[in-house]
């Protein structure tokens, strides 16, 4: 991936990781199109940045994704990087019968969303010089957070899909996986204040430094996520799962206390 001068489409660009990285790419000289459902949030993220453009997109609507892709290519013919970042995360109790609306929405947004948008843009990207697709997964793709089972499963699925995509597009489009650790964002209630999670700006700085490398690593991994990525390879999966489950429950409880002021 070029270290400057790209035209990047960033889904989920109105907040959190998407917004922070859009700013980093803009600062280094890229043009960034940030996409999401909430126009107000997108416009706030783009404020004062002339090379950040705002478009609305609902990745749950398959027909809308195809129409969106056609319009984006028409408006930004130099588009050469797709950044599949949009995602949702819900905590779920699997111990009894439940409403599956959250699980189904998570599957649609986190799996079908990137697959649909990649499919809609692939013919264009293959024709562009220095084209790249970046899929955002998670450390939970490698060691699941049992309190968020569907989210963890979707990230494991996109990790696997990314490996296949990279192999099929070799020599045509660069395919990169970004796997964040727990980052202080609003992905889940209280997460922005959760102890033990990586501050958003620190994470964005570390990621930007890796994207500045030549060649770009095929996997972007900050230090905090490496134990998850290497757990199974190093024979530490069971130990890491147990530690993560206990620590995550403690961190959520601590974050809830901080947020409530107790």
From TrEMBL:
Give the matching PROSITE patterns: ADH_SHORT (PS00061)
Named from the GO MF annotations, one term is:
oxidoreductase activity
* Top-rank EC class of the record's enzyme: oxidoreductase
A Gene Ontology term for the protein's cellular component:
membrane
List UniProt keywords, sorted A-Z.
Oxidoreductase
Q: Which domain of life is it from?
A: Bacteria
Q: What is its EC number?
A: 1.-.-.-
The Swiss-Prot or TrEMBL record describes its family as follows:
Belongs to the short-chain dehydrogenases/reductases (SDR) family.
PANTHER family registered for this protein in UniProt? DEHYDROGENASE/REDUCTASE SDR FAMILY MEMBER 7B, DEHYDROGENASE_REDUCTASE SDR FAMILY MEMBER 7B
Protein name (record): Oxidoreductase
Q: What organism is this sequence from? A: Sphingomonas yabuuchiae
What phylogenetic lineage does the species belong to? Bacteria, Pseudomonadati, Pseudomonadota, Alphaproteobacteria, Sphingomonadales
């Amino acid at each position: 991936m070029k270290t400057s001068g790209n035209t990047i489409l960033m889904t989920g660009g109105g907040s959190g990781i998407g917004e922070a990285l859009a700013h980093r790419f803009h600062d280094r000289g890229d043009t960034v199109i940030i996409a999401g459902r909430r126009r107000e949030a997108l416009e706030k993220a783009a404020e004062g940045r002339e090379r950040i453009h705002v478009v609305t997109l609902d990745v749950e609507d398959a027909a809308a994704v195809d129409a969106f892709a056609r319009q984006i290519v028409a408006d930004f013919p130099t588009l050469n990087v797709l950044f599949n970042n949009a995602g949702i995360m819900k905590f779920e109790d699997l111990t009894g019968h439940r409403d599956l609306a959250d699980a189904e929405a998570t599957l649609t947004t986190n799996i079908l969303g990137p697959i649909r948008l990649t499919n809609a843009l692939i013919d264009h990207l293959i024709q562009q010089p220095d084209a790249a697709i970046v899929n955002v997964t998670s450390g939970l793709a490698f060691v699941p957070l049992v309190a968020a089972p569907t989210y963890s499963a979707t990230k494991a699925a996109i990790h696997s899909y990314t490996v296949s995509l990279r192999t099929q597009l070799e020599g045509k489009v660069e395919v990169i996986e970004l796997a964040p650790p727990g980052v202080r964002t609003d992905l889940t209630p209280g997460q922005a204040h959760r102890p033990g999670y990586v501050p958003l700006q620190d994470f964005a700085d570390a990621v930007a430094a890796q994207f500045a490398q030549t060649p770009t690593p095929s996997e972007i991994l900050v230090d905090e996520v490496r134990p998850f990525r290497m757990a199974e390879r190093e024979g530490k999966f069971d130990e890491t799962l147990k530690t993560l489950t206990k620590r995550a429950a403690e961190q959520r409880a601590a974050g809830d206390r901080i947020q409530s002021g107790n």
